[in-house]
Amino acid sequence: MTLTLRALLGACAVGALATAATAETITVATVNNGDMIRMQALMADFNEKHPDIEVEWVTLEENVLRQRVTTDIATQGGQFDVMTIGTYEAPIWGKQGWLVSLNDLPAEYDVDDLLPAIRNGLTVEGELIAAPFYGESSMVMYRTDLMEAAGLDMPEAPTWEFIKEAAAAMTDKDAEIYGICLRGKAGWGENMAFLSAMANSYGAKWFDMDWQPQFDSPEWKATLTDYLMLMTEYGPPGGPNNGFNENLALFQQGKCGMWIDATVAASFVTNPAESTVADKVGFALAPDNGLGKRGNWLWAWNLAIPAGSQKVDAAKTFIAWATSKDYLEVVAAEEGWANVPPGTRTSLYENPEYQKVPFAAMTLESINAADPTKPTVDEVPYVGVQFVAIPEFQGIGTAVGQQFSAALAGTSSADDALAAAQALTTREMTRAGYIK
Questions:
Q1: Which CATH class is domain 138-297+373-431?
Q2: For residues 92 and 302, what is the distance between their CA atoms, to the nearest angstrom?
Q3: According to its record, what are the GO cellular component terms (predicted)?
Q4: How many CA atoms lie within 13 A of 435 on its CB side?
Q5: Which pTM value belongs to this model?
Q6: By CB atoms within 10 Å of each CB, which of 11, 85, 118, 124 scores lowest?
Q7: For residue range 59-79, what is the model confidence (pLDDT) as tens digits?
Q8: What dotted CATH number matches 3-136+299-355?
């Protein structure tokens, strides 16, 4: 090797070391769901575009993630530069000043392309405080063959009265076919996610404008009464133990006539490798009662920057890439359009290739039907569709869910469950200072 060549190679090596030495490392805390795991496998695109930024991942189960990021952000520990948070946490933390504004993302990010329903839930006093990676609502998934056999046609926008009629008509307990499958497992994110959204369409609400609980209202009684009737008369056995995963399995096994749950389930129930009824599934909007609100929820997993981060610019660069239109193209090229993160951008639903995905249109309609800033028929002091965006809600929501699950199990009546929910919620809200 000549001296000149050796010198050139040495210079290149020194340059490479210098680049590596100046690369900034950001730590991203995320949830161990399929879309986030897929993103980690597609980092070559980011690395090529941003060789000056290295990403270190901390991937955790959902409950552990919430605990870790909540502790870190509340103490400004600075352990993470990017956090994956839900639609529940975002407005609470934004109001506390715990999140960095993303209003200055580059123009090509096209913030106006974000779906309004999702963007509104992530905006606090005009500041975008988190960027959505993945969004969902809920809708009716139903067996087209059973609906036809019952002599009924599912409307695109059914009422609760139609759901009751169809559930009765499709139930054949001797054949282990149940007209409707709904969440019964206790939890603020399990049965109360469904019941809170259902209650909105009945004109019910968690609190009035003075933060007084409303479980003693006729609207809540009507909601719980109809829910218990549907589950008891037309639902599968073991209802109090059934959450999302249990009902998904029942539907895939052909045991549910209808299932009202997350739009993300559509890809699973229509996958012939997983579902015995993949070619017999239809979709409709979540039901309503003609009061202006449908019984569907709204959720997103989002990327946000804690105020304690010392690497805000690099964190913003990563978020702009991970939640961009270009990233959707990267996923589509590798995994196919049906597997891109759904529910965040208008342009995705205008894409002719994505429009071929059988559940794309109904997912968009469902998301657009939910408004976290005006979730109920009457005015309320909170935001959030299937949750109330206050720190106390996790505990209160789960406690109320336990009361309603007990009513489903038959260990208490609807009236007793509602009275207990009213009492415990009043007690906790008084303790927290909302009620004087």
A1: alpha beta
A2: 14
A3: periplasmic space
A4: 13
A5: 0.82
A6: 11
A7: 988 778 888 998 899 888 889
A8: 3.40.190.10
